[in-house]
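Sample A.
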Amino acid sequence: MAVSPEPAHAPHRLVFDVSGTATVHTLTYVIDGKSTDEHEITLPWQMTFTFPYGTGRHEWRLVLTNSDGTVNATATVDGQLMTNSSGSGGGTLNLDGNFTG
């Protein structure tokens, strides 16, 4: 009797999505301890990260400072909403979370 090979698993996808009318002055994202800064972001802004299946726990954080207008930020993993935050008039938004892949 032949043994079927184990099905391949798709990689996990983390997507940050930021929209609105605000001016975003700084945006910092941290993925598994590695920090990246971006400045004077034009909205909408989106960034996708891919993680191979079976690579354990992954942590993320998104922090942005904005002024003037509204801003909405979401983080999804494999199409499922993990967290979101919104505001208007200016300030700082924070999203953070983790998943095991």
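Sample B.
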Amino acid sequence: MQNGTNLYALDISAASFSEAWGGPCTEGCVTLARIGEDAWALGDSKRPDVEPLRFTTEELDAAGIDPARFGLGA
């Protein structure tokens, strides 16, 4: 949780998702958007109907996901 905030309570309707740089996008492309100071939404461009998962920066780091790979700063 981000400072006691439920990540899924954050509004992501205006979030701007970026695809990861490099590699082919054949089975599904991971997308990432910053949705708060320490909050991220991770989606799949091939399945836009599925709600993106949400993570803190610490959780992204633990999973080995680098926002810089998406052209985003942590």
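B remarks: The first strand starts at residue 18 and ends at 19. The mean pLDDT is 86.
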